[in-house]
Amino acid sequence: MSEKEPCCPDKDPTPSMGENTIETASLAQHDSFWIEWRVACSVPTSSWDSTSFTTAGVHYDTFQKYYPRIRTAMIGMYSSPSLGAQYLPDVVESGSTYPVTAYADSATNLYKLVAKGGSIINSPSAYYLTKTQLDALKAHPALMEQDLGLPLTSVSGEYWIYTITSLKDSNLFFQSTVAPTVQYGTRPLHPIYNTPGGATQSLILNNMDTTLWLKSTTYEVFAPTVLPNLKCNSLVK
């Protein structure tokens, strides 16, 4: 039998999801919680060099075959077809459902949650949230990181929430459900950190087009007051 080593801090084992165990926490305690997880799982704080982050989402080949019109519309959002061909597969496979079309009217806001210190102005990252989804995540902060499928390199004790505003009516974007994820650390092929996903992600592929979208430079601070409710995964030596 394989010997197993818990991939979570020994001194403060975390409860399994579904136990409804909520532990209040200060910002310092929340930061410390994630630092301990990164150390225990051998995941660097900000570098992806020794990690592998994978999603258990839909298959792009199947998407191309059965949803050609949506694929064509999504490719058209990029500044060139070659960029679309390069980046769209990862966007599609980040979801456990195939993308569907959605539209924002003029002055409609969508939201992006980033770790403290982050910004969206120069970031082409397509992943945003509707107000309804953001409010649902705030209402259950112990599961927020897991619902969003955040990797250990993107979690924080405090988050900054930026807005992106539609500058026209019927502004096209796409939506899918966040897929489950697995992140590997310094020992490849051994799962160390899993998330179930489940939130609805709004995919704004042309968010760098300043004629269609306006990104905020100010942000709302959101610091969860409860510790994350995580499964304590095992790491096979």
Report on the structure:
Strand 8 (181-184) and strand 9 (193-195) form a beta hairpin. The chain has helices spanning 27-40, 60-66, 68-75, 81-93, 131-139, 144-148, and strands spanning 4-6, 52-55, 100-104, 109-115, 127-128, 159-166, 171-177, 181-184, 193-195, 200-203, 213-215, 220-222, 234-236. The radius of gyration is 18 Å and the shape is globular. The strands form four sheets. A four-stranded antiparallel beta sheet has the order 3-7-10-5, with no helix packed on it. The chain has one domain (27-222). The chain contains six helices and 13 strands. It starts with a strand and ends with a strand. The protein is of the alpha+beta class.
Spell out the blueprint of helices and strands.
Blueprint: E1 4-6, H1 27-40, E2 52-55, H2 60-66, H3 68-75, H4 81-93, E3 100-104, E4 109-115, E5 127-128, H5 131-139, H6 144-148, E6 159-166, E7 171-177, E8 181-184, E9 193-195, E10 200-203, E11 213-215, E12 220-222, E13 234-236
Antiparallel strand pairs: 1-13, 2-8, 3-7, 4-6, 5-10, 6-11, 6-12, 7-10, 8-9
Features:
disordered N terminus, alpha+beta, 6 helices, globular, 13 strands, single chain, four-stranded antiparallel sheet, 237 residues
In short:
With 237 residues, the protein is of the alpha+beta class. 24% of the residues lie in helices and 24% in strands.
Distance linking N and C termini: 11 Å
Please state roughly what percent of the residues sit in beta strands, choosing from under 5%, 5-15%, 15-25%, 25-35%, 35-45% or over 45%: 15-25%
Kindly name the structural category. alpha+beta
How many strands, what sense, and barrel or not for the largest sheet? Answer: 4 strands, antiparallel
Number of DSSP strand runs: 13
SSE arrangement, N to C: EHEHHHEEEHHEEEEEEEE
- Radius of gyration in whole Å, from Cα? 18 Å
Total individual domains: 1
What does the overall shape look like? globular
Flag low-confidence runs: 1-21
Helix content: 10-25%
Reading side by side through the largest sheet, how are the strands ordered? 3-7-10-5
Count of separate DSSP helical elements: 6
